[in-house]
């Protein structure tokens, strides 16, 4: 999804992809094949690049450091990426900055979890500090016995954990900002995200009914994190909102993020364009939305292997739909595309986006 | 510019380009090199394509016919393309359909031009029936002596001419429609185009102050042409508007057209997306604009060979600009990019788009 923005800006992308079947290879001419943990492959790939950036956070620190040592700008840099890679580092740093995190503790043994629950009550949340994604690596545990099972199992696999209060949130928000090396930043409208089984299903931009003070606070949190952690490129701060309106930081992503896919069709400058502008230290573009409201629904693979008939039906049913398909093989639970609808009426936009996403995955057939 | 639309729709493009340095090669992985008049190259390229379409009209008829004979859908087909390739055929057919063309005549000798001028008065316009582009192949002649010089010179080169009344237009308009093989069509807002030395400089969408009846008439003309000529894909009808508001057909283009570049950033469905949808017989997308007004300014090469510093300046000056650069070497008079601004106030949008286009080409430096 970076390629359309690169084409318009006149930038040439080179991609390192682990698998020649990766969807990036279908749309970008200059592709190198190699795993991001393969130092030689990464250095060979990076030769001649003006800047290296990422679409996920799973590049090992030693590879990042070796890249930096070559003198090629790496944006965001390893010093920032650490906080997107390691949730314990993130919690420690954000707490230090006085930003609103749920009560938390590193977990060396079940006693640490018990001590947290003593203060917060059960349930609590256990998280792998590294490598989680789309709900993987997160366990909500109701009592000490359940916590012990997760902790023992993680110890057996060498996985480090932290424990957090289970925030009694009423909804989840995402605040996205772009920041460039010379410190310019722009903040996108704060959106509401709807997750199901740990996977983002829908995004509403802006978050319906959000009070201006809360939206400004979410943007302030994201801008503060971007600045203090020296983030370059797009930063998404995923937040919990509790019934009293307060905001709690959940996760960070230092890259274009699913909660910003609506910006491709719905904003003057998409998150992909602003990510590219930021990592190249170009001036950033306006994050202003085109319409009062955008609803984005992910198409999550189910059991319909051939999207084409459904795609035809959806295009015919609704000429205002923006359907994006990723060229990925359909697997249950895999994000294979998304749909965006712009408009003014929430119920109308949401019905249209939901219908198309459900139809495309084969959940409904009328 | 077709590639971003193809990526979003999940379509894979294969391009036949005459020169390995063509800008399409920079952004599309699957490129074949060959000239569109090279039958073997075209047939080899087309093997395995679901449909073949065009970004210019200069594919010879025998190549088109051979392509059609292979059974691969060619859209628009040779029967339609003829009217975009040959202005005499176009004038004859549109006159037959009762559509408003300037008075015209084929020119076999200077006597034909003189006979037309007898009826219309001087000046008249002489046009090469084939191969013209961006003002090339068009001569406005003030008297018979001037007409004779053009006619003799054309005869010497074997170029066929027609003669037309010089329409005393007050502005130029363009009406774009997309039409699919099964006959669905959508009409974009009618725009005003501003030419200088035969080259399009600016486009205003919609045409400022256009009366609804005139806009509807322009759309009716374009939809009629698309249907009667069996056009598939995008059709642009370039029109003259005279002081009495009347419309006169100037030229046809059967492809995405410069007058529709504003739709990339300014419409729910860009002309490139609707061209792809149309030639694949997919349902068409909404042509609705995102904003009350869009102004597009072409960046015409002058003597600034390195765009980058100007590009930086323009991005910094105006975060709402959509700058598109084409990856072409800068040559005087060559379209090397365009700029689009969306908004509500004409003077504001026009000033911003004009400033950026002039700065990018090196015409101004502040």
Automatic annotation (TrEMBL), chains A, B:
InterPro entries: ATP-grasp, ATP-grasp_carboxylate-amine, ATP_grasp_subdomain_1, PreATP-grasp_dom_sf, PurK, PurK_C, PurT/PurK_preATP-grasp, Rudment_hybrid_motif. The keyword RNA-binding does not apply. It is an enzyme of class 6 (ligase). It catalyses: 5-amino-1-(5-phospho-beta-D-ribosyl)imidazole + hydrogencarbonate + ATP = 5-carboxyamino-1-(5-phospho-D-ribosyl)imidazole + ADP + phosphate + 2 H(+). ATP binds at residues 87, 127, 164-167, 172, 250-251. One of its GO terms (cellular component) is cytosol. Residues 91-280 form the ATP-grasp domain. Keywords: ATP-binding, Ligase, Nucleotide-binding, Purine biosynthesis. Its EC number is 6.3.4.18. Coiled coil: none annotated. GO terms for molecular function: 5-(carboxyamino)imidazole ribonucleotide synthase activity; ATP binding; metal ion binding; phosphoribosylaminoimidazole carboxylase activity. The keyword ATP-binding applies. Pathway: Purine metabolism; IMP biosynthesis via de novo pathway; 5-amino-1-(5-phospho-D-ribosyl)imidazole-4-carboxylate from 5-amino-1-(5-phospho-D-ribosyl)imidazole (N5-CAIR route): step 1/2. One of its GO terms (biological process) is 'de novo' IMP biosynthetic process. HAMAP family: PurK (MF_01928). Belongs to the PurK/PurT family. Catalyzes the ATP-dependent conversion of 5-aminoimidazole ribonucleotide (AIR) and HCO(3)- to N5-carboxyaminoimidazole ribonucleotide (N5-CAIR). Catalyzes the ATP-dependent conversion of 5-aminoimidazole ribonucleotide (AIR) and HCO(3)(-) to N5-carboxyaminoimidazole ribonucleotide (N5-CAIR). Homodimer. This is N5-carboxyaminoimidazole ribonucleotide synthase. It comes from Actinospica acidithermotolerans. The gene is purK.
């Amino acid at each position: 999804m970076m390629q359309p923005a690169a084409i318009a800006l006149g930038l040439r992308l080179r991609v390192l992809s682990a698998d020649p079947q990766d969807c990036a290879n279908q749309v970008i001419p200059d592709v190198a094949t190699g795993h991001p943990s393969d130092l030689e492959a990464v250095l060979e790939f990076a030769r001649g690049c003006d800047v290296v950036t990422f679409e996920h956070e799973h590049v090992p620190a030693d590879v990042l450091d070796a890249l930096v040592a070559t003198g090629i700008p790496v944006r965001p840099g390893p010093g920032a990426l650490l906080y997107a890679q390691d949730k314990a580092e993130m919690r420690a740093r954000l707490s230090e900055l006085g930003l609103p995190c749920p009560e938390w503790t590193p977990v060396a043994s079940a006693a640490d979890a018990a001590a947290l629950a003593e203060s917060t009550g059960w349930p609590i949340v256990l998280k792998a500090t590294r490598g989680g994604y789309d709900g993987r690596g997160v366990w909500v545990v109701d009592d000490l016995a359940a916590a012990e099972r997760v902790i023992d199992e993680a110890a057996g696999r060498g996985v480090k954990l932290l424990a957090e209060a289970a925030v009694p949130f009423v909804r989840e928000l995402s605040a996205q900002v772009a920041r460039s090396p010379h410190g310019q930043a722009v903040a996108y409208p704060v959106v509401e995200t709807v997750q199901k089984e740990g996977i983002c299903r829908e995004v509403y931009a802006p978050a319906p009914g959000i009070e201006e003070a809360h939206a400004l606070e979410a943007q302030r949190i994201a801008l503060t994190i971007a600045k203090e952690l020296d983030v370059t490129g797009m930063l998404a701060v995923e937040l919990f909102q509790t019934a009293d309106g307060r905001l709690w930081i959940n996760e960070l992503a230092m890259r274009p993020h699913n909660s910003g896919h609506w910006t491709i069709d719905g904003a003057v400058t998409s998150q992909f364009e602003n990510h590219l502008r930021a990592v190249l230290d170009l001036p950033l573009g306006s994050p202003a939305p085109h319409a009062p409201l955008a609803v984005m629904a992910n198409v999550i693979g189910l059991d319909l292997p051939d999207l084409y008939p459904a795609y035809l039906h959806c295009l015919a049913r609704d000429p205002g739909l923006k359907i994006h398909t990723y060229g990925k093989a359909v697997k249950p639970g895999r994000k294979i595309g998304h749909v965006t609808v712009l408009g003014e009426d929430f119920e109308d936009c949401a019905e249209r986006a939901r219908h198309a996403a459900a139809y495309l995955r084969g959940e409904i057939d009328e």
